Amino acid sequence: MTQEEFKILFDKHFDSIRNYIYYRSGDEELATDIAQESFMKVWEKDLSYDEKPIKSLLYKIASDIFISKYRRDKVAQKYLAKLEPSIDNHSPEEQMQYEELKNKYELALSSLSEKQRTVFLMSRNEGLKYQEIADRLELSVKAVEKRMTYALSYLRNALGR
Predict the structure, then answer these.
(1) Which of 38, 69, 101, 132 could be stapled to 128 by a disulfide with Cβ–Cβ 3.0 to 4.6 Å?
(2) Has this prediction a pTM greater than 0.85?
């Protein structure tokens, strides 16, 4: 297809392709983008000029692009819906109890010895195993176990559990 033939095809069918997508989507900008992309795909195929089959191909390409975009948007919306924070359904009393417990925990954690606090936080916050903690702190596994035992015992007593 020559440039002149493509220009004739474009001028003759662009509005009808754009309207077709606009009626399906209700979005004028999207319809224009998809119509342009459809013509670009036809141009890239470098077909011989035969208006009737090319017109049908344009509608098919435009429809396929629209469906692909719709599916991508649908997946993206599902993903975004999962990311939205859930609504907090806790009563004010539960919220207050949580805050009190959190404050007790932070106070008890800060009153642990530095060695016990370090081992406890490496285990609980970083999810490290005793062997990994021992390797990082250059201690024996038994020393890590002993510090962890003291830390847990102190936290249980401080939190009244």
Answers:
(1) 132
(2) no
